[in-house]
Design brief:
Helix content: under 10%
Number of strands: 33
Mean pLDDT: 94
CATH class of the largest domain: Mainly Beta
CATH superfamily of the largest domain: Glycosyl hydrolase domain, family 43
Bound molecules: calcium ion
Structural class: mainly beta
Largest sheet: 6 strands, antiparallel
Distance between the termini: 54 Å
Strand content: over 45%
Radius of gyration: 23 Å
CATH architecture of the largest domain: 5 Propeller
């Protein structure tokens, strides 16, 4: 038996699968980034040539910000994202009892520091905790066993300035910072509250307790000598705006809107990186089926700074950014590395990392921009099945596209009893979107941990 869990999202994704067959749905949609769960509050980090995306996790069917763990995804091409599961949850912080909300990860001296707001079970108020890990995908452990800082406000964000001084910013409704020490888990001096003025953060009308547009979610960074503070503005619903300054401590000048109110979530939350020569804006909306203000999804757009360093208006799309390069099918690829997943879920694998599971007839995975080159001769997959299995159809271009191979999967005696299956492949050449379409009888068919193609045995013709 599979462990009991909510089938709601799987049902939703089945509906989405049906919807995807309708001509009105864009065929190339890669936003939102994650389709297997609801995600929120993106915090991207570039490390060693890879983009790590840290998110929150809206529980299925939430009617509040019901969030219990955080998630990690990564990509090298901004189109296919690997699911690294949940290396941190409320249980990481013994002093926290609820509200695993918007965090931020900073890297320093070989370690990853994950700053998060959680509810302090002792005070009942929101506090900022910090966890530390030796890898970008964890595991993470509570660095202090108590809050780092606590003023019943949220949304931590860290900037490490060029002189080595690190700042922790956070706040809703105020905007605060402390100067972190080199250990990144303590600070010197007290909390400084940035004066919120119309010149600095835009003027909000009709709300005397919040006189500026600043609402929450500061994303502070430095680029080409200019300091940026990108924030969620004027709830509700929120838009994304920004201010700039000549130093990490201001003075800030309001620079206007980046992302207008869009996307059927009454909050938004920004994260910005430069990667592989491009600039990327992460945000969230309610784009998945069943999505809304408490069932959000993280998405990303590529953009180009204006010559003066200002940020253009960025609109939400379903296409997402163009792929950076291609995906190599002749090395091991995780099944949980996808541009789009339909009908499936992910779970921790007994072999490490994650696997794709809850696979039923008609479910599929889209892997974008797979460079087959002169051709593939065979396909190998790591699979497990507690039932009688099914088959993996390898299709190009769409889930109903050209069939280039079919791999049979038999029962293995358990959902984590792994074996390797191989089948011949014909007609897979060039760079194509690969669809792993799953087929078989009723119920759950099998799990997939990873896959790999082998190249054609035939030498290319000169
Ligand atoms: Ca399914
Ligand atoms: Ca895997």
């Amino acid at each position: 038996m599979r462990p009991a869990r909510s089938r709601r999202l799987a049902w939703i994704m089945s509906v989405l699968c049906i919807m995807s067959l309708l001509p009105a749905t864009p065929a190339m949609a890669d936003n939102p980034i994650v389709q297997t769960i609801y995600t929120a509050d993106p915090a991207p980090l570039v490390h060693n040539g890879r983009v790590y995306l840290y998110t929150g996790h809206d529980e299925d069917g939430s009617t509040y910000f019901t969030m219990r763990d955080w998630r990690v995804y990564s990509s090298t091409d901004m189109a296919n994202w690997t699911d690294h599961g949940s290396p941190m949850s409320l249980a990481t912080f013994a002093w926290a009892d609820a509200n695993a909300w918007a965090g931020h990860v900073a890297y320093r001296n070989g370690r990853f520091y994950w700053y998060v707001p959680v509810r302090n079970r002792r005070t009942g108020g929101m506090a900022i905790g910090v966890a530390v890990g030796d890898s970008p995908t964890g595991p993470f452990r509570d660095a202090l066993g108590r809050p780092l800082v606590e003023n019943n406000e949220i949304d931590p964000n860290v900037l490490i300035d060029d002189d080595g001084q690190a700042y922790l910013y956070w706040g809703n409704p105020r905007l605060a910072y402390v100067r972190l020490n080199n250990d990144m888990i303590s600070y010197s001096g007290g909390i400084t509250y940035i004066q919120l003025t119309g010149a600095g953060f835009g003027t909000r009308n009709g709300n005397p307790s919040r006189p500026t547009l600043y609402e929450e979610g500061p994303w502070v960074y430095k680029r080409n000598g200019l300091y940026y503070n990108v924030f969620a503005a004027e709830c509700c619903s929120e838009f994304i705006a920004y201010s700039t300054a000549p130093s990490a401590t201001g003075p800030w000048t309001y620079r206007g809107t980046i992302m207008p109110r869009q996307g059927s979530s009454f909050t938004n939350h920004a994260g910005i990186i430069d990667y592989a020569g491009g600039s990327y804006f992460f945000y969230h909306n309610g784009a998945l089926p069943g999505g809304g203000g408490f069932t959000r999804s993280v998405a990303v757009e590529k953009f180009t700074y204006n010559a003066d360093g200002s940020i253009p208006t960025i609109n939400m799309t379903t296409a997402g950014p163009p792929q950076v390069g291609t995906l190599n099918p002749f090395v091991r690829q995780e099944a949980e590395t996808v541009a789009w997943a339909s009908g499936v879920e992910t779970e921790p694998s007994s072999e490490g990392g994650m696997n794709v599971g809850y696979i039923e007839n008609g479910d599929y995975l889209k892997v974008k921009g797979v460079a087959f080159g002169n051709g593939a001769a065979a396909f190998t997959a790591r699979v497990a099945s507690a039932t009688s299995g099914g088959r993996i159809e390898l299709r190009l271009g769409s889930a109903t596209g050209t069939l280039v191979g079919t791999c049979a999967v038999n029962g293995t005696g358990g959902w984590q009893n792994w074996t390797t299956v191989t089948c011949p492949v014909s007609g897979a050449t060039g760079t194509r979107d690969l669809y792993l379409r799953f087929a078989g009888g009723g119920g759950y068919l099998f799990n997939v941990n990873w896959w790999q193609f082998t190249g054609s045995a035939l030498p290319s013709t000169p």
